[in-house]
Amino acid sequence: MKLLRISLLALAALTFGACHDNDDKHGRDLLSASDAYFSFGSFYGMCQGENCVAFFLVRNGKLYEDKKDQYPKNGTPHEGDYEALSDEKYQLVKDLVNKIPQELLSESSTTIGCPDCADGGGTYIEINSADGKRFWYIDNNNRETPEYLHDFIEEVNEKINQLR
Fold it and tell me: Where do the domains of the chain lie?
């Protein structure tokens, strides 16, 4: 009987350990490599003023803002001129990378929907991890994007508004 309990406990530990490792691979350890980073932003073409384009970068426990405020070129990774922000602002977004949907990491296309085609703007996501560099331009119109993205894109845009 004692051997059966030990076997069951060992099996349970292996099962829960396997699930935990899988969860870590899909978010929690995405920024564990020394050159890893997470970038996110929003852009609106039919807009005036400083709030039309905003890009941010999370790297090595710090948050940076792109000061160029340049409308991105769809199909290419965004290149910014980043300046450090306060730790208080970093605290607002430090866990955002953990919320990247696994389905997004599996997307083969770098454009999802038609970002900013109907003057609704777009959201930019980029991650550089041990698995390589990936980026996506995503339509803000929920009718043009998969449902798995809706809550994540809403949260990204809420965080961007809090950082402004």
Answer: 1-30, 31-163
Whether the pLDDT of residue 16 is over 70: the answer is no
Instruction: Provide the CA 38 distance to its chain's centre, in angstroms.
Output: 6
Burial of 55 by CB count in 10 Å (0-12 exposed, 13-18 middle, 19+ buried)? buried
Task: Tell me yes or no: is domain 31-163 CATH 3.30.1560.
Answer: yes
In the predicted structure, residue 162 carries a pLDDT above the cut 80 = yes
Number of Cβ atoms within 10 Å of the Cβ of 51 = 13
Q: Under a CB-based contact definition with an 8 Å cutoff, are residues 84 and 62 in contact?
A: yes
Helical segments of the chain, H only: 2-23, 87-93, 102-105, 147-163
The model's pLDDT over 24-59, given as tens digits with 9 standing for 90+, comes to: 444 446 666 678 999 999 999 988 877 899 999 999
Contact assessment for residue 124 and residue 39, using Cβ atoms and an 8 Å cutoff: yes
Alpha helices in 29-96 (DSSP H): 87-93
Tokens representing 118? 């109907």
What does the pLDDT look like over 105-153, one tens digit per residue?
A: 999 999 999 999 988 999 999 999 988 999 999 999 999 999 999 999 9
